[in-house]
Amino acid sequence: MVWTAEEPLRHGRSYLLLAGSRTVPAVVTTVRDRLDVVSGKQFAARTLGLNDIGTVELTTDTPICLDSYGTCRETGSFLLVDRVGKETMAAGMVRHALRRGRNVVPHAYTVNRDARQRLKGQRAKVLWLTGLPGAGKSTIANALERRLHALGLHTYVLDGDNVRSGLNKDLGFTPEDRAENVRRVAELTRILLDAGLIVIVALVSPFRTDRAVAKSLFQPGDFAEVWVNTPAEMCARRDPKGLYAQAKAGTLPNLTGLGQVYEPPEHPDLVVDGAGSLDDATDELCALLRD
């Protein structure tokens, strides 16, 4: 595969794979190597940058017919396209199909999400809180869960730091690791939603594409993107975890908003003032749940 975009390849990020007349979501699961075009040697690589050529493994959301490029150029070549901006990110040719997972067939259980919701007397929904570090996402999520719990509703909060202390403890803060972090949290959120819970996600999730991919896993009406909009200078003053102080000292190069960009939502379902009243924010989120 030849990577043609200025933005590097990100593990875990979902792209669109175009092959012949078919377009399906696809994820690069592994970068096996990168080719040195001068020496012709292959080197280990974790990602691909502009004009890099590498061998990768891809997985698609749905089955797609592909041949090896040597057998048929038309069905053995593909493009990867960004799901949000629609820019072409890479062009590639198929060597062979990986035969993993052919015998995996999801089982339809009798007790489903609808049954679990009826038992709990509530409608399951996802509230995905995104914003800068220190914006107040965890504080708002905590206040909201306390309010809902007092009303007898069944909830669960997936907090960024809490998830990274267990499920995602192997991930760093590079863009590709952030994409994988969001992907795993989104898949876990989908399981909890199926359990009939109201799921509150408090996650920086800085990139629009990753949040869009997370949202695409859910049916319309099940997922609400909430922007906790707090001025960066206030986040830095709060600095509850000392992250901004570390970034200022040069010991934390990938802090969102300083070392890495934060892309605010363009069309959020709700914008919460992270510098305002906590009760007001909780009221707004409860109203969103009732919609």
What does this structure look like?
There is one protein chain. It is globular, with a radius of gyration of 21 Å. The chain starts with a strand and ends with a helix. The chain folds into two domains: 2-93, Elongation Factor Tu (Ef-tu), domain 3, CATH 2.40.30; 113-290, Rossmann fold (3-Layer(aba) Sandwich). Helix 2 crosses helix 8 (278-290). The mean pLDDT is 90. Strands 1, 2, 3, 4, 5, 6 and 7 form a seven-stranded antiparallel β-sheet that branches. The protein is built from eight helices and twelve strands. By secondary structure, the protein is an alpha/beta fold.
Features:
291 residues; 2 domains; 12 strands; Rossmann fold; transferase; Elongation Factor Tu (Ef-tu), domain 3; 7-stranded antiparallel β-sheet; 5-stranded parallel β-sheet; alpha/beta; 8 helices
